[in-house]
Structures are given as structure tokens and as C-alpha cells.
Amino acid sequence: MKAMKKPTQAALAAALGINPSLVTRDKRRGMPVHSIEAAQQWRDENLRVRYTPEKDREAVTRAIKGESAAQRVTSLHQAAGALLESGGDVYPMLPMISQAMADVPPSQRMRVGVVFEVMDLLTADVRRVQDQGGDVLELTEGPFYPCDKEGGDSSFMGAFWYSVAAGEVRMKAVK
């Protein structure tokens, strides 16, 4: 199982609507950096903000909701993984996990911790085509969101398979 990743300093700065150098300063002053929600709470309790435009507050709210959605998916994956290990039936959980994955905004998807056995079940249809030698990129349709352009092919394929598991990318209809 993959644990939740903490947000990068740049992601924290963007979510909080501040300059990245302020993240460094506030971190030295005791601001937690393991989650956007914890950082925002610390800032609310420890800093006097002179002016925060409403749009910045909305960005923070969206980031916190995205972080919560990523944590929910991670928890669902872990529960399904534990159920699989004990020999239980995870198939009834798969639609809920898929929808929860779709609810995570693209900017937070790299933070989702997945259980590979559960991902195998969520992506089985598309993987079957790949295993038969088909070109999955040619035979699927729907949007997927590359998470990190600098990550290269592995980031591209990770975003693709995440989108398949989330039900956003599916097999093209046979004509």
C-alpha cells in the first residue's frame, strides 16, 4: 500500500495563496506541512492576515476539499486491500472507489495512495486489451489529466491508468 504523500512546498503555497518563500518562513515558525488543511489552520491561529481576497479563500477551500477527497480514496483503497487480503468480496466496493477517484481534482491525484491489487480490478477491462497486444491509447476514449509534465512517460501512464480506474477513460464503443 502506498501512503499519502505530503504536499510539495509549491503546492502548499498555491493552495494557501502565498509566495513559496512564506511557506519556508512559516515552516520555521512551526507551521505543519503534512497537509493543506493543517497549514491553513495553523496560519489562521498564528498569523494576522491583513488582506485576503475572497478568491484566495475559495482556492484554499477547493484545495482542502481536494485533499479530503484524496484521503477518502486512500482510505477506501486500504479498506478494499484489507478485504482482499482476508479473502472478502471487494466487487461491490469498486463503483464507490471509482467514483471517489473521479471526485479528486487533478492537482491532488498524485497524493492518492492506491493498493495495486485494487487498481488491477478497477482497470481490468482496459488491461485485458493491452494484454492481448492492443494499443490502449488508440482503443480508449475520455479525458485524462497528466499530473506532472516533467515526470515523463511514467507520470503520463500513471495519469492514464488513474483516469481508467476513475471511469473517465473507457473502451471506445464498437461501431
**First CA to last CA: what distance?**
39 Å
Radius of gyration: 19 Å
Order of helices and strands: HHHHHHHHEHE
Percentage of residues in DSSP E strands: under 5%
Given helix and strand content, the structural type is mainly alpha
Helix fraction bin? 55-70%
Mean pLDDT comes to: 83
Strands of the widest sheet, in order across it, are 1-2
What's the main sheet like? 2 strands, antiparallel
Query: What is the count of helical runs?
Result: 9
Tertiary shape:
elongated
Uncertain ranges: none
Number-wise, the strands total 2
Give an account of the 3D structure.
The protein is mainly alpha-helical and 175 residues long. It has a domain of 93 residues. Helix content is 59%, strand content 2%. The chain is built from nine helices and two strands, in the order ααααααααβαβ. Strands 1-2 form a two-stranded antiparallel sheet. The longest helix is centred in the middle third of the chain and has 32 residues. The chain is elongated and about 60 Å long. 29% of the residues are buried.
Secondary-structure map:
Layout: H1 9-16, H2 20-28, H3 36-46, H4 54-85, H5 94-103, H6 116-122, H7 124-131, H8 136-139, E1 140-141, H9 152-165, E2 170-171
Antiparallel strand pairs: 1-2
Helix pairs in contact: 1-2, 4-5
